[in-house]
UniProtKB/TrEMBL annotation:
Coarse class of the protein's main subcellular location: membrane
Signal peptide: 1-19
This protein's name: EamA domain-containing protein
Any single Gene Ontology cellular-component annotation: plasma membrane
Domain EamA residue range list: 270-417
Species in which this protein is naturally found: Tribonema minus
UniProt topology in membrane: Multi-pass membrane protein
Pfam families linked to this entry: EamA
Length: 475
């Protein structure tokens, strides 16, 4: 296999610069395969940067006719490619900002609900309502996607592309009810989401909206910490970012503590602690969803995750009511006392929290982040606490004093560092293999959200050989 990989590299280096054309299977248009020599380094593509610094290489890039894939070669190792100015890129940036605004509005809206209504909902009830709204949103998206796929298949059959339709049917994967990988993924991920959302809502009910947002954003820092616990080496910049982030949250908590006293101070500190715990569950979710997405199809995974999350939430309410405990009696008392106007406001908060912030925004995020890239996307996400604080100031009258401003600045600086610093053990050669496979995958014209499953199904022996060759050149 190593010999075949070496032969493949020699063959690539002998190809003409203008490229060659192959018919793309299951596509009505050919894909143009163009060998491109990498001229410089750069962090936009870790694969190209690594290989270029150690002897140079060729990379095969698939391009659709009438659509040129931009390959920007940086002049120096530390240069970063300029941002894309295409309409699709700008639209994706705007989409991510809409997602951030939905997330930023969620926390002040929940806090407003607890501040305004005379009979605030029990956390378990609000959690169940939010999860149910998210499930209905995902089911609606699944129904729309199924209808779209059915129309495409009908058009294919009408056009005489029976082979393509047969290929789609053959590669559709196991049925929804028999997709055991998605079921196991949903069972685990739904648990993390149920715990995270519940603790988040509980924390918001006790602390300030702005502080809750900063505490939840600790997820950005906890993910690399979880990777370190799993054996991934972290760069010194990431460890510095971790210390800065927790220091910033400490200053924010201190700023909030100076404005309250007695029982309110206890509630504020307890609320912050609940939000930090919620961030831990969100971080576990982010780490595990990365692993599961390589083994389970995206839509079934999302449906089962949301389904289990809703099941847990509804079961928690039922268990409380049946337990006969004071918490269960609180649910019954609230149901008897809540007014119609309060019920409508609480329902609106649950629908926005589950349907918009955790449903629609999450679905929009996937495609937009693919266009923008993870590093720039993380920088956009890190502005969430700023928007949250602005909304909390305008709507709830919350204020952040000098100590809090210093803490917020320290925290946001930590998020920026974490967003642009990859783990040290991230192997550029492995990223190279993945990038080439992504190009190969694009040539088939298959759905983007199935790429992770495609990667897990492809035999990786050649990739291992190529990665070993790249590491040998580096050493």
């Amino acid at each position: 296999m190593k010999a075949s990989a070496a032969a493949a590299l020699v063959l690539l280096q002998s190809l003409p610069a203008h490229g060659f054309t192959l018919p793309a299977a299951h596509s009505t248009q050919p894909a143009i395969f163009t060998p491109v020599r990498v001229l410089g380094g750069g962090h936009r593509n870790h694969l190209d940067a690594s290989v270029a610094r150690h002897g140079g290489s060729f990379r095969v890039v698939t391009q659709r006719p009438y659509s040129v894939t931009p390959l920007r070669a940086a002049a120096a190792d530390n240069d970063v490619a300029p941002p894309d100015t295409s309409q699709a890129y700008i639209t994706s940036l705007a989409t991510l900002m809409i997602c951030v605004w939905c997330w930023a509005l969620q926390t002040p809206l929940v806090r407003y609900c607890f501040n305004t209504v005379e009979h605030p909902p029990p956390i378990a009830v609000l959690n169940a309502g939010s999860a149910a709204a998210a499930l209905l949103t995902v089911l609606g998206a699944a129904a729309l996607q199924a209808a779209q796929q059915q129309r495409q298949q009908q058009q294919q059959r009408a056009s005489g592309l029976s082979a393509d339709a047969a290929y789609d049917d053959a590669t559709a994967g196991p049925s929804f009810l028999r997709d055991t990988e998605a079921q196991r993924a949903g069972l685990e991920l739904g648990t993390y989401k149920f715990m995270g959302v519940g603790l988040n809502l509980l924390g918001i009910s006790l602390t300030l909206s702005s502080q809750a947002a900063f505490c939840i954003q600790l997820t950005t820092i906890m993910v690399p910490l979880a990777q370190a616990a799993m054996g991934v080496r972290l760069k010194p910049q990431l460890w510095a970012a971790v210390a800065m982030a927790f220091g910033g949250v400490g200053l924010l908590t201190l700023d909030g503590a100076t404005n309250v006293g007695g029982a309110n101070l206890h509630n504020l500190l307890l609320g912050d602690a609940y939000c930090v715990a919620a961030a831990g569950f969100y971080a576990a979710y982010d780490v595990r969803v990365n692993a599961w997405s390589k083994r389970a199809r995206t839509l079934p995974l999302t449906l089962y995750k949301t389904g289990f999350q809703t099941l847990y939430s509804v079961a928690a309410v039922a268990a409380l009511v049946a337990s006969g405990t004071p918490q269960g009696q609180q649910v019954l008392d609230w149901a008897a006392q809540v007014t119609p106007d309060e019920a409508r406001l609480i329902a609106g908060v649950a629908i926005f929290s589950g349907g918009a912030a955790n449903g629609i925004a999450t679905l929009l995020q996937v495609g937009a982040q693919r266009q923008v890239g993870p590093s720039r996307a993380q920088l956009i996400y890190s502005t969430n606490p700023l928007w949250n604080s602005l909304i909390a100031t305008l709507v709830l009258g919350e204020t952040i004093r000098t100590v809090g401003v210093a803490g917020a600045g320290l925290f946001l600086s930590a998020l920026a560092i974490a967003a642009v610093t990859p783990p040290e053990s991230e192997d550029p050669a492995v990223a190279a293999v993945t990038a080439v496979k992504a190009d190969d995958y694009a040539a088939f014209g298959l759905p983007d959200d199935d790429f992770d499953g495609y990667l897990s199904d492809v035999e990786d022996e050649e990739g291992v050989a190529l990665a070993a060759a790249a590491r040998a050149r580096k050493e």
